[in-house]
Design goal:
CATH class of one domain: Alpha Beta
Strand order of the largest sheet: 5-4-6-3-1-13
Strand content: 15-25%
Structural class: alpha+beta
CATH architecture of one domain: 2-Layer Sandwich
Order of helices and strands: HEEEEEHEHHHEEEHHHHHEEHEE
Helix content: 40-55%
Length: 389
């Protein structure tokens, strides 16, 4: 059991006196609705049963001591509550530090330090939101340890605030929301413009969700991500000259076709088209699930990937290879890239009897074409953050 391992490691490093708590926050995968969350559209993520484990104990002073079993070479990293600022040498600890700082900014000052050990079984850099998982986990721990009166939805917003303002990543709300609000067996149909959400049961009779990790480290992703955001913002401003909307997510496909001539640049037309059509695909996909139409859901996943490849141009050869090889396998209901793109992962729905063949076939073709191996994870949909022991 992972719980016992992380607890034993904590005691070895930090001693076993005092009250020690063990916590967990999941990773997430987005089933459909990519690059819609900052365009005022809908997303459809779910929490996973893999995620981040945290072992923690309150201290009597203002010292913060951090250790990650995923980055053991870094040893114990120390910080102080009196001097919370992002630092390159602080490495991964900028995420928990950012959340502690954000609580303070929201009027909930943490007065006592802590010893915190983390272990994540989400592959790093995979696009399954290991950073958002750490943020939500830290927020949940602060709520539990110091008695702050915050809801899980508040934790999502605080996590996003810390990532935007402490770590300087211009992310939308989806990752933190999916993790904080996760519900076993369900995905979250979230309107990112209003934060209205409903839970939709994912009934995969005789099928599994398989995550394929490209193992391509995302280098240029962040700069391209900010570039895509600004292309969409410019396109929105151009369309707003001719029609009163607040976001690209307000448009239907027909309205987009009617007004797109207001966008002065061919590339921006493609970016905006993706945002509008992907939002509508997400709405249709949730409807398909309600009608138990998994076939249509899979077709919409496939169409999502094509749009991300051709109109939004965020896939790259690694993700395209994983998806195009997946489409060749019998028993694949749908497959698409998930996350920001330029590396990271794909998500596929695969019939039970085809899972082994899928991993073997896609894995072989990928390694032959790309030159290194992909990793595969058969995942389950899990709950949100919680205290384990």
């Amino acid at each position: 059991m992972i719980e016992q391992e992380v607890l034993a490691k904590f005691k070895e490093l930090f001693g076993d006196e005092g009250e020690i708590g063990v916590y967990f926050a999941p990773g997430r995968v987005n089933m459909i609705g990519e690059h819609t969350d900052y365009n005022g559209g809908h997303v459809f993520p779910c929490a996973l049963t893999i995620g981040t484990y945290g072992v923690v104990r309150k201290r009597d002073d203002n010292k913060l001591r951090f250790y990650s079993m995923n980055f053991e070479q870094l040893g114990i990293l120390e910080a102080s509550l009196d001097d919370l600022k992002p630092e390159k040498e602080a490495d991964w600890t900028n995420y928990p530090k950012g959340v502690i700082w954000a609580f303070g900014e929201k009027g909930m000052k943490v007065e006592q330090g802590m010893d915190l050990l983390l272990f994540g079984n989400i592959p790093n850099g995979s696009g399954l939101s290991s950073s958002a998982s750490v943020e939500v986990l830290t927020g949940y721990i602060l709520k539990s340890l110091y008695g702050f009166d915050v809801t899980n939805q508040d934790l999502a917003l605080i996590g996003q605030y810390s990532e935007n303002n402490f770590n300087g990543v211009n992310c939308g709300i989806m990752d933190q929301f999916a993790i904080a609000m996760g519900k076993e067996g369900h995905a979250i149909f979230l309107d990112t413009a209003t934060l209205d959400y409903t839970y939709a049961p994912i009934k995969l009779e005789n099928a599994k969700i398989v995550i394929s990790c490209s193992n391509k480290k995302r280098g240029l992703g962040d700069s391209k991500y900010n570039e895509r955001r600004s292309e969409c913002e410019t396109a929105l401003a151009e369309i707003q000259q001719v029609v009163g909307i607040n976001s690209l997510g307000d448009l239907t496909e027909e309205q987009f076709e009617q007004y797109k001539s207001a966008i002065k640049d061919e590339t921006r037309v493609k970016r905006a088209k993706h945002a509008v059509y992907e939002n509508q695909r997400t709405i249709k996909a949730v409807e398909a699930l309600k009608n138990n139409d998994l076939k249509l859901f899979g077709e919409l996943m496939n169409a999502s990937h094509v749009s991300l490849r051709d109109d939004y141009e965020v896939t790259g050869i690694e993700l395209d290879t994983l998806v195009e090889e997946a489409w060749k396998v019998d028993g694949v209901i749908g497959s698409r890239m998930t996350g920001a793109g330029f590396g990271g992962c794909t998500v596929s729905i695969v019939k039970d009897e085809s899972v082994d063949a899928f991993i073997a076939q896609v894995g072989k073709a990928y390694e032959e074409k790309i030159g290194y191996a992909a990793d595969f994870y058969v995942v389950e949909i899990g709950d949100g953050p919680r205290k384990l022991a």
